[in-house]
Amino acid sequence: MKNRNAEVARFITIPLSHYCEKARWALDRAALPYREEPHIPLLHRLSTKRSGGGTVPVLIHAGRCFVESTAILVLADNFSGGALYPQDAGQRHQVESLVARFDRELGPHTRRWAYAQLLSDTALLRRIWATRAPRAETLLLPVIVPLARRLVRAGYRVTPESGQRSIERVHGIFREVEERLRDGRRYLVGDRFSAADLGFAALAAPVLFPAGCRAVLPALDEVPAAVREEVLRLRDTDAGRFALRLYLQERDTPAAARSATA
Ligand SMILES: N[C@@H](CCC(=O)N[C@@H](CS)C(=O)NCC(=O)O)C(=O)O
Fold first, then answer.
1. What separation in Å is there between the alpha carbon of 106 and the centre of ligand 1?
2. Domain GST N-terminal: where (predicted)?
3. Which of 18, 19, 200 for a ligand 1 pocket mutation test, highest count of atoms within 8 Å of Cβ?
4. Third-level CATH fold of 89-253
5. Helices (H), 62-194
6. Which of 89, 96, 213, 222 has the greatest number of CB atoms lying within 10 Å of its CB?
7. Where do the domains of the chain lie?
8. 144-147 contacts, C-beta under 8 A, 24 or more apart
9. Rounded to whole angstroms, what are the CA distances from 53 to 17, 41, 66, 69?
10. In whole angstroms, what is the distance from residue 90 CA to residue 69 CA?
11. What mean pLDDT is reported for the chain?
12. For 168-220, how does the pLDDT look when each residue is reduced to its tens digit (9 = 90+)?
């Protein structure tokens, strides 16, 4: 008899991570069975290194390790028979370029801005990093938080000034997205949801705190007023509204269920 467990992928994450949310969204949409293995920062490396990676997410599926979120999107697309990338070569190229651009710029800048605002709040960090992580790991948080905070600050070059520059870059990317949407289209490329829309919405999560997002984010009422105001400002843009709509309409719709009901 076939061992069904062997077909369940292992998905190594830090629950707060927006790159993990990007991959999780793709796996959910493709209805690719996986078991999430959430970790607190730093301890994730014990698992990712074993799989030949470093950052999260990492997915181990059918004996292969996928150590980049975009590689997980491509796998999810193949698994589902095309749920995320268009057939048309020109459109596919546009989707790939947008995904790469969001990976390179949007993700790092939304993250840096959020960390610049929240990294000094030890209680908040502890609570967010502990959510969904194994209890044995959360017991180490009093030791890990100061260390991880230093590494995050140095690794992502987080300062009040860089945080400010990052949010300006985020506004710039939002304006570019709005430019694309100006003709009334519902999706960034073509007339259906693709990896480009998913990449934008997932990597914008740290500046939108969207309802429906499965990454662990603070509640709006527990962050400083300046953060709340910036989030509300970005939510109230066309690009912000677009991302929030994607969470409402596209986050919980596996491709399998969609084609069964189409
Ligand atoms: N290019 C990577 C970026 C992933 C990434 O930056 N992950 C962050 C969390 S948002 C991470 O793992 N940070 C901890 C580390 O660098 O070990 C991808 O798309 O998967």
1. 13
2. 7-84
3. 19
4. Glutathione S-transferase Yfyf (Class Pi); Chain A, domain 2 (1.20.1050)
5. 69-80, 89-101, 107-118, 122-130, 135-138, 141-155, 160-181
6. 213
7. 7-80, 89-253
8. 144/40, 144/41, 144/42, 144/43, 147/42
9. 16, 14, 8, 12
10. 22
11. 94
12. 999 999 999 999 999 999 999 999 999 999 999 999 999 999 999 999 999 99
Q: What is the pLDDT of residues 102-117, one digit of tens each?
A: 999 999 999 999 999 9
CATH number of 7-80: 3.40.30.10
Query: Can you read off the two tokens belonging to residue 176?
Result: 């570019």
Q: Are 109 and 218 in contact (CB under 8 A)?
A: no
14-52 residue pLDDT tens: 999 999 999 999 999 999 999 999 999 999 999 999 999
DSSP three-state, residue 188: coil
Question: Tokens 């690794």 sit at which residue?
Answer: 155
For residue 9, the surrounding DSSP H or E stretch is strand 9-13
Pocket of ligand 1 (CB under 6 A): 14, 17-19, 45, 54-57, 68-70, 103, 111
**Ligand 1 pocket test, candidate residues 55, 115, 150, most atoms within 8 A of CB:** 55
